[in-house]
């Protein structure tokens, strides 16, 4: 793992700047703050910028962690019961700002119109009634390992998590491509476009509000939901691996992949890859103040089950999706500066 631990001196230097930024904007979703984030990130300490740039450019690991960010749990208040409106009056605005600036060193943050109503920074927390859903707000069911948004051509390069609370030390599970025994797998077959991948449950319309309040955006979002339905009904064939055959990238989400009709060789190759991924799976218990950037091309991730209490003390993370090619999703976004994919 590529890791940096912030010192007391780092925190002392960071928080006056973060407090000033938090006082200048209303929420982390402020479009101007998000637009300015790559410029504001230059205010971060040089050694932190160099650390993130090394991870981005040289790919020393599939995981990058920053630890030691100051987190005052008594200021956080109770874990929300759901994600709607949690961005307003956030008690963790300073930490959210730091998270945003670090993410903006790696690429451009973006959101999905079909997830958390198009917000850029998501809340990851248990929601009552979702205990057994295959979705990030579940608890009693394991969240199956996956590439984030594996079904979509505009999926991010990185998915990142910042821990606000994790009193039960619930493990995020990860398996990294560099750890896999590629010579033992049928890599050539996995590079062939014979595998079908359906959209995951977090993009379904029942997890969104009925209206954004903007007729144009509602129409675009409705188009997205229709497209997702069509991908469920008529999934396209695609490869599971891509990039360099000696050090491949991955895109798969077995829970949402139907193997019906796959050639025998492709099914065997896929099952071999899944078995190898599971054999190399490890758990990471994020602690308050930890930020992890998961290379979405080089690692899959999930989460172990836990017993939610719904009493304000449950696990609470923030999540950002990051792309290194914002232009690649231009056909999906209503304007060049818009960060939400429809």
Automatic annotation (TrEMBL):
Entry keyword set: Iron, Metal-binding, Oxidoreductase
Positions of the TauD/TfdA-like domain: 230-320
InterPro entries given in the database record: Alpha-KG_dependent_hydroxylase, Arginine_beta-hydroxylase, Clavaminate_syn-like, TauD-like_sf, TauD/TfdA-like
Signal peptide per UniProt: none
Record Gene3D superfamilies: Clavaminate synthase-like
EC number: 1.14.11.41
Superkingdom as given in the UniProt entry: Bacteria
MF terms (GO), sorted A to Z: 2-oxoglutarate, L-arginine oxygenase (succinate-forming) activity
SUPFAM superfamilies per the UniProt record, alphabetical: Clavaminate synthase-like
Family recorded in the similarity comment: Belongs to the clavaminate synthase family.
NCBIfam families assigned to the protein according to its UniProt record, in alphabetical order: GntD_guanitoxin (NF041363), viomycin_VioC (TIGR03946)
The protein's name: Arginine beta-hydroxylase, Fe(II)/alpha-ketoglutarate-dependent
Gene (name only): vioC
